[in-house]
Amino acid sequence: MPTRTRAVDAFLITALIGAIKLGVLALFSHRTGKSINAALAEWDAKFYMGIAEGGYFHPTQPPIEGPPHERALAFFPAFPALLRALHTISGADYLTLGTTISQILSFVACLGIMTLAARSGLGRTGQIGAGILLLGAPLAITMIMPYSEALFMALSTWALVAIIDRKWLTAGALTMLAGLVRLTAVDLVAVLVLIALYTTFTRGQNLWRAWGAVAISPVGIASYLAYANHHLANAGGYFTIQRQGWHSYFDFGAATLRFLARVSFDNTSIIGYYLSAVIIIAAAIAVPATWPSVKRATLPVEIWLFGAAVAANMLLSDGIMHSRPRLLLPAYLLLIPLVGEITHKRSRPAQVAIATAYVAFGAWMSAYFLTVFPWAI
Where are the transmembrane segments (predicted)? Predict the structure, then answer.
């Protein structure tokens, strides 16, 4: 597929699914009395907009008990810095800027996953399906909110394209930038290191560009962690505030198992917990289930390594379990072969029906979590 055609398809997918998600959110907002703006500005969006406006040490929202920076520094700087820069230039309010930027970055991410689908051997229909897979996913509405999801997905998908194409310095630079967006960029760094090692040993030569990329790839994440730890020394450091504020720490999956057990046997659990549990279980199944696709060369190993690493990070750590559907969005890359199966083995009407049901469910779940579900996503 010509690049221009793919870009047009990505634009149309982004616009259409974005409109559907906002339309369903409007229906929920009307029924619940919670405005669309209030829904889009919830939870992490408050932190990002507050940091953009007042900095880490004087964020304007949300209200924080104790020294504000001991919570605000949990959020990586790239997205709030982008918000602040564009606000300075345009004067627009932070919510408008945040949603607009995220929508634009959703297009970039959609084009990225469609390009990854092309590298996986899928034709135009499969590439369109891959775009729908990402943007139509449950809680993908965060990709049009003032969240870091769209920025991270845009950088990570194109970093993977660069790794697959062996454009080493581009891959290193994009990975470095992703390291300023969120901690999950460590998975991109790991993939880049593994592929550089493999390429070096199989080609039997010194690839200076590959190792230059490896050298620069962790600079973003390492620099921010050093900065945060310096200012959080009295609070115990970055990972201590993550644990205290969000119960986020590596526990080999103990918390995930406890959550699944509680949802399974506690008849007082609300629907949001069940939905989160289903997605967690699906992610655990997807990792081993998609490995044969690597062997069949229908999924590049680079994509599988990244998706598996993201899934492992989420499933083997404690944290806010009902945020898992959002945090597992990068792992949807593992399902590119499933999209290929649907496009090859199902009729066109069946493909349309599957895509429609998937987008409808994703939009419903997104709206439910923003307007009805009482806890953070």
Answer: 7-28, 94-116, 128-145, 180-201, 207-227, 271-291, 303-321, 355-376
